[in-house]
TrEMBL record:
It holds the Pfam family Catalase. Heme binds at residues 80, 120, 169, 366, 370, 377. Keywords: Heme, Hydrogen peroxide, Iron, Metal-binding, Oxidoreductase, Peroxidase. This is Catalase. Decomposes hydrogen peroxide into water and oxygen; serves to protect cells from the toxic effects of hydrogen peroxide. Residues 36-424 form the Catalase core domain. The gene is katE. It comes from Psychrobacter piechaudii.
Amino acid sequence: MKDKINHNDPAKNMCPHTGNGGEPQYQADDSVPNLTTQQGVVISDNQNSLKAGPRGPALLEDFVLREKITHFDHERIPERIVHARGTGAHGYFELTESLEKYTTAKILTETGKQTPLFTRFSTVAGNKGSKDTPRDVRGFAVKIYTEEGNWDIVGNNMPIFFIQDAMKFPDFVHAVKPEPDRGFPQAASAHDTFWDFVSLTPETMHNLIWLMSDRAIPRSLRMMEGFGIHSYRLINAEGKSTFVRFHWKPKLGVQSLTWDEAVKISGADPDYNRRDLFESIQAGDYPEWEFGVQLFTEEEAAEFPFDHLDATKLIPEELVPVKIVGKMVLNRYPDNFFAETEQVAFCPSHLPPGIDFSNDPLLQGRLFSYLDTQLKRLGGPNFAQIPINAPKCPFANNQQDGHMQMHVPKGRTLYEPQSLEPNKPRANYKQGFKSFNEQLDDGVKGRVRAESFADHYSQPRMFYRSQTPAEQAHIATAYAFELGKVETAHVRTRTLSHLLNIDEDLAKRVADALGMDLPEAAKPAAPIVDMPESPAVQTIGLSPKTLKGRQVGILVGAGSKKASIEKFENAVKAAGGSVKIVAPSIEVKLDDGTTIQADERVAGAPSVLFDAVVSIIMPDVAKKLAKDSSTLDWFNDAFNHCKAIAYCGATDEFILSKLPVEKDEFVTPLDELDAFIENAKTRLWEREPKVRDLA
Ligand code: HDD
């Protein structure tokens, strides 16, 4: 049989099932722009390839099809070798206090001006499609488009790094990435190669203990600190240098997940942190950080009981306070993820005049690596012309050609010195970037490590001893979890030998949890110093009592009281929190006959996605839900994760009474609204040891 075909009107040949809600996807009038090829030729039919007859074969001459498929075939670029999984947002930087005494950089001297920036947050080990909530360091990279050139502060959410010398970076990354023979585990440090490497490299001990702490599982990207880590220099008008470390302090304080939550969230919502950033910006609840600096002189640095050029060392805030001098607000989610978040290229060597590097050997290696990696990832030397990377101040140079050159340089000369075009740009000694004229020792060339870098235990010891009891338990439990995944006994033993140098009690707790005997302590290369405790490195201690940025899940069902739902919703919102309605179905008929649309079905929104939960359901619904394991988990998990629960009579009678949920002060009946709102601002950490076997 021959199919009938209408060659003049493609719409008449369209499949009746294609199209948007039944709307034909062709141009019926001129109300929307034409779909065209890359060459600007208007496309008449975007549903069917050109065929010799309605049932094939397709014709090679179909340039519309070829162009579409070819472009599609080339959509992917190499993902970042580390920090592949990330999300970002636009915003601005504003200086509140001038650092004129220390630097000439306008971004740090001109107060009250909003300078655009782009910030990208990331996990380190996982690939681009991995989950948001692994136990991992988070990248915290800020590109500020200053009027004197781009300034990239490429930092992390921890103030120190794993290694001291860039020479070790590929080894470190190979050890944490999926093991090369088997290709797993993805986005996880809990495996043999990672612990093998770190236990053989004691300089990793400090960052390692931060990785085992609550800082490695942030509740929200808006609730983590950011650190530039290395010491940099600020250079003032007299050419004088002051050392500086950069800090970002979140307005919402520092808040973390529990490990069990993080594991469950990775199944329930692998985009958990990314979605939170998106939703908060869409809601106008803009993420904000204070910008701070630790300033110190060469002479002061000489008195520190550690070497500040060693990136495995933090400078305790109690020793050198963080001076708050500005803020960052993120107020616009990217229009296009690939064009902006994926193509953004950070590099620690992007600095404006007035800021300079220190001799930190890790930093020095980074200055090479980032530019090099962009050449591969973005395909050539013109990546700085991509809009997200281009400076927003005037720029001009004699660079020419290369892949994807977007500029059309005018004139005869692209070299210097030249005398043919007097108005071409030239270097400017007065305004240009100048390196600090550092007087160097007469060093001897060699592959050496400074002796002042040899102490690997004093700071992790200080970190552990500065934590609250709940945090210490989390740290010990995290070591036990990770080492529990390590198959090779001597790797576990070697790790314990380091923990003994950090804190004996910690080592014992981990050994007991693993059922192992304690080995001899590792031999330290330098004396271990008892530093004063630093509350600034806690997590729980930095978590404010607030509902701002936190989300409450309200479970409702058929016949639920609308007035009660609204009462809770309004109270949560008034306290700065947000609400999601969860129900067995998406459309829910309430007691007054109105139908509301739930945000999520209960099976799709486990309570790990919320900071506190409320249940407002009728007895027949409660009876039915009592047989549903996802509903039972909803309450059980909320309880086990130390959250506030507000319950109605039916929930109590048919669900809570069947569960090991104790009526402590955070489990309250619906009529105690004020108590619930107060509780929802925090967690009841005292509950934790009752519900979890912590190390
Ligand atoms: Fe790195 C990316 C942070 C040491 C080599 N790094 C990257 C990103 C962050 C950091 C946040 C992601 C940037 C983005 O969002 O695009 N890296 C750090 C910090 C370090 C550090 C805080 C130590 C203080 N990195 C480090 C070393 C080397 C690299 C020692 C190599 C010698 N890092 C890279 C890289 C990446 C990168 C391979 C991968 C993608 C990219 O640069 O653009 O060049």
